[in-house]
Amino acid sequence: MSQSTAPMISSHERAGSAFNGYLMLAVLAAVTVVVLYLVINAAPPSGAEKYEKLLFVGTLLLGSLTVLIGSIGFFMIQPNQAAVITLFGEYRGTVRTQGLHWVWPWMMKKKVSVRAHNIHSEKVKINDLRGNPIEIACNVVWRVNDTAQAVFDVDDYKEFVNIQIEAGLRTVGARHPYDDMSDEDETTLRGSADIVNAELREELNERLIVAGITVDEAGLTHLAYAAEIAGAMLRRQQADAVIAARKKVVIGAVGMVEDALEKLSGDGIVELDDERRAAMVSNLMIVLCGDREAQPVVNAGTLYQ
């Protein structure tokens, strides 16, 4: 018999209400003055009736308890800070207005920072799209957007952010190769930073929306092959660089030979048959593409000798 799991009910932030803290501070100050006056001037004489003494003690205790319990309800909201108010476990709203506030002492207050937080993740070892082990790390700027979700829908929203950043980094890193080893124009971790960073930010926003967290910025800060293949990949990169340089030299040499032959033929300096033209092309390509300087040879005979 299958059992169905009830979906989690998502919380949503709503505005909470609180009394003006400065006004309540004045009220408590007035009550304190009254209590002090009773202690100093209103104490019953020694010969007073018993009920008068009990009335005095009761009034004094009531005033003292009012001052003591009333002082518990004060709380201060700093800029870019919020306070989540609950009453016997029931969410009663979030206060975001900065300044001094007061709520009933039996109402709980949990302060939540809505400032921007900056996290630099640890280096994690993953496999890219082609299975190559790489080391990767990122920097993430995030903030609390919905305080009710951050407090009630996850156990510890800061720890939740740290775990989801690592999970999102692994997911995005595994979608693309570290570098492009083919002639295809594809997205790579090393060569497509803007695309990868935007994809990482979108991935983290999707993961953290359940906790009321918004990611403002995300970007890779470390990217390298793992130590066990770093040497082999370095040699491959060096080989790619040599091939690219050779290719550029050959293309340039072909253009120079073509221009030289056209100039010789166009100006009528020398007439070459196909065989001698091929020999000249071969000599020019050797001179232009060789790693060492060419050694000239003086020909004292004819062109065909």
Quickly list its features:
305 residues; alpha+beta; Tetrahydropterin Synthase, Chain A; four-stranded antiparallel beta sheet; three-stranded antiparallel beta sheet; 10 strands
Question: What can you tell me about this protein's structure?
Answer:
With 305 residues, this protein is α+β, with helices and mostly antiparallel strands. It folds into 3 domains: 19-113, no CATH class; 117-225, Band 7 domain (Tetrahydropterin Synthase, Chain A, 2-Layer Sandwich); 244-289, no CATH class. The protein has helices at 21-41, 50-72, 147-152, 157-173, 193-208, 227-266, 274-289, and strands at 19-20, 74-77, 81-87, 90-95, 99-102, 107-113, 117-120, 124-127, 133-144, 213-225. The strands form 3 sheets. Strands 7, 8, 9 and 10 form a 4-stranded antiparallel beta sheet that branches. The chain has a 3-stranded antiparallel beta sheet with strand order 1-5-2. Strand 3 and strand 4 (90-95) form a beta hairpin. The longest helix has 40 residues, at 227-266. The mean pLDDT is 80. One of its GO terms (cellular component) is membrane. This is SPFH domain-containing protein. InterPro entries: Band_7, Band_7/SPFH_dom_sf.
Nutshell version of this structure?
This protein is of the alpha+beta class.
Helix percentage:
40-55%
Q: What is the CATH-assigned architecture of the largest domain?
A: 2-Layer Sandwich
Apparent shape? rod-shaped
Distance between the termini: 99 Å
Q: How many domains, in number, for the residues?
A: 3
| Rg result | 40 Å
- Sheet with the most strands, sense and barrel status: 4 strands, antiparallel
**Number of DSSP helical runs:** 7
CATH topology of the largest domain: Tetrahydropterin Synthase, Chain A
Structural class: alpha+beta
CATH homologous superfamily name of the largest domain?
Answer: Band 7 domain
Q: What average pLDDT do the residues reach? A: 80
Taking pLDDT < 50 over at least 5 consecutive residues as the criterion, the unreliable ranges are none
Q: Using the coordinates above, name the CATH class of the largest domain.
A: Alpha Beta
